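TICKET #2291
ISSUE: user wants both folds in one file
ATTACHMENT 1:
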Amino acid sequence: MDDALFQSVYETILRRDTRYDGRYYIGITSTGIFCRPSCRSRIPKPENVKVYGSIEEALQAGFRACKRCRPEQPGQHGPDAQIAHAVKELIKRRYSEPLTLGDIGAELKMSPYHLQRVFKRVTGTTPSKELLHVRMEEAKRLLAASGQPVTDIAAEVGFRSPSHFTSVFHKTVGCTPMEYRETAGAR
C-alpha cells in the first residue's frame, strides 16, 4: 500500500469515521487485534497498523477480533448503532410509561451513563429528548385523529399531570393542545 493511500486510511482511523466500517479492517500489530476503522479504542501508532480488505484476511494474518467494536458482527456501524437502535425501539414500545434513563439501562443491561454517551454520539440527541419527541408525535397524532379529552391523551402519552403535559406541549410545539387540535382539524 502506497504512503498516500495509507495516510488517507489512517485519517479515517483518527476521525473514527463510520462510513468505512465493513469496507476494510485495521490490524494492530502491537496487540494482535483487528478493528473497524471507527473503533473507539486507543488510536494505534501508524507503524503498528496493517489494512485488510476483509475479516477473513485479518484472521488469516493471525489477528483476533476486537471485543469493543466487534468487527465480526454484521451491521455497518457496529455495536454503538445497535445500542442506539435498541434504545429507540424500547422508547417506541414503552413511551407511555414513566421511563427513566436508569430503566432503559436496566432493560438493556448497561450503565445508564454509558448508554447516554453512546446514544448521544450516534444520534446527536439524548434518550430523554428522544422520549419527549416520541411522546409529542403521538400526542399530535391523537389530537388530530381523535376526540379524546386532552387529559386522557396526556395520560396515554406518559404524562401524570394534564397541566404539565399542556406546558410541555406548548413549549415543544408552540401552541396548546387545544389550539393544535383546532388547526389540525382545519387541514
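ATTACHMENT 2:
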Amino acid sequence: MQGKVLIVTGALGALGKVVAETARSRGARIAGIDHAPSQISATPESIEISGVDLSDATQAKTAIEAAAKHFGRLDALINIAGGFAFEIVGDGDFTTWQRMYALNVLTALNASRAALPHLAVSKAGRIVNIGAMGALQAGSGMGPYAASKAGVHRLTEALASEWKGKVTVNAVLPSIIDTKANRADMPKADFSKWVTPQELAEVILFLASDAASGVTSALIPVGGRV
C-alpha cells in the first residue's frame, strides 16, 4: 500500500473507517467520500469529501475529480457505500427496492464510471466492490437487499470484462459483518460466526494491492464460519 492513492466510499461507516485506517497505516494516501458530514481538514496524505450523494452521477463525478486533483492521481477505488433493508416482498414497499438499488448499485456504478479514466492510467488500477454472500441465495425478507447486491456482482463482472488489462475489478461477498449496529439488531446471534471489519479489510486491501494483479472478475465470499 505504500504510496498508493485509494478512494474509499462510505469511509465514515464501520467498515469504511477500518479499511481507510488500515490502508493509511500501511503507507497509502486516502480520499474518503461519504454522505455523512466530516470536520477533518485535508492533508497531503488524507482528504475527506463529505455530504456526497453517490447515487447522483454528477455529485459522484465531482467528488472523484476532487480526490484526483488533490493527490494528482488515483490507484484504487473501494466501493463500500451502501445500505440494508429487511422487508418481505409481498408486504413491502416499492420504494424500498428503489432505495436499495440507489444505495448499493448506483453508488458503485457512478463512482466507478467517474474513477475509471484515472485508474486506467495507473500502473495498477483497482476497483473493489462490496457484494453480499446473502445475494447468492436470498432468504425471506432479503429480496430488495439481495437483488441490489446481485446487481453489484454483475456490475463487477461486466466492468472486469470491459476493462481487462487496464483495471482489475473484484468484489468481496461478506456474511454478516460484526458491527455495533448489527449486534444491536440481532442481540441473540452468535457473533463469533460473523466476519469482523478487520478480516474483511485484509481481503479488500489484498485485492487493491500489487499482489492481486492477476485477479479480476472474482466474487470472493468472506466469513460464514460454521
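RESOLUTION: both attachments delivered.
EXTRA DETAIL ON ATTACHMENT 2: Helices lie at 14-25, 57-71, 94-119, 143-162, 180-185, 197-207.
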